[in-house]
Amino acid sequence: MGSNPHVPASSETPAELPAPTTPPGREALAAILARPDRAVVALDFDGTLADIVPDPEQARAYPGAVDALVALAPKVASVAVITGRPAGVAVRHGGFAGVPGLDHLVVLGHYGAERWDAASGAVHASAPHPGIAAVRAELPGVLHRFDSWHGTWIEEKGRSLAVHTRRATDPQAAFEALRGPLGELAGRHGLIVEPGRLVLELRPPGVDKGVALAQYVRETDAESVLYAGDDLGDLAAYAAVEKLRTDGPDGIPGLLVCSGSAEVPELADRADLLLTGPGAVVDFLAALARQL
Q1: What is the pLDDT along the chain (292 residues), one digit of tens a residue?
Q2: Is the dihedral of CA 204, 106, 226, 55 positive or negative?
Q3: Cβ neighbours of residue 145 closer than 8 Å, sequence gap 6 or more
């Protein structure tokens, strides 16, 4: 898998549709092209549809992303943005609300605990885990016990909390020093820690992108699925697609796309198609829409 070619982004005309380098990936792309109305295109947000930035509140959909989704969404069964962010935040940062042509778009926020449908503009959510409030109260004190806390900061997600180390003097050292203490804190309150790219997220167990994706594919009765992601949190969605491929007598063809690979080789090694980042993902989606 490491020999997959990287596909460059283009600021002008999107490149021709690149071919996956694995047999399962090629099979899935052929299935999507043959029956787009039975295909689900699922996408992570940060690092996939938006560049990773030091302050997540400043993240915005990559230029051209909404246009590509407008071209693609009416041609497929659904486009689903699956993110750990609150659904409303992803909608706002993505610029998805009130856009003509996005009726087939849903945002599954907090790993599926929240759902926003473009057709209605409404967010539906389940009750939050009680451990979040306890962790919220204790987390600042835990961080202050470690020299490595300087430069770290807490992102409030409502149904989860994330500790970012990207701004620390030594981001990787801070990340490694805090993994154990944050894991202990989460465990005391029935939560888990999900590591990402210089971020540690404390959230409820049993809720991840794989669960959200598998449930949505079943709900839509999809015959094929594409998933694009960039971080460790996307491994669960990758696993869900790999399982869908083998479910039943024929399985559901699935295409795994990796947005960039420098920081997360674990994802790149399992991908059917490597793209260099959000710009290349947008080009790919636009090219796919033209082919359908």
Answers
A1: 333 333 333 333 334 899 999 999 999 999 999 999 999 999 999 999 999 988 888 999 999 999 999 999 999 999 999 998 999 999 999 999 999 999 899 999 989 989 999 999 999 988 888 899 999 999 998 888 875 567 888 998 888 899 999 888 889 989 999 999 999 999 999 999 989 889 999 988 888 999 999 999 999 999 999 999 999 889 999 999 999 999 877 899 999 999 986 778 999 999 999 999 999 999 999 999 999 9
A2: negative
A3: 181
Residue 183 Cα distances to 136, 150, 153, 270, angstroms = 14, 19, 17, 27
Closest CA to 218 of 242, 238, 244: 244
Distance CA 98, CA 95 (A): 9
For residue 145, the Cα-to-chain-centroid distance in whole angstroms is 32
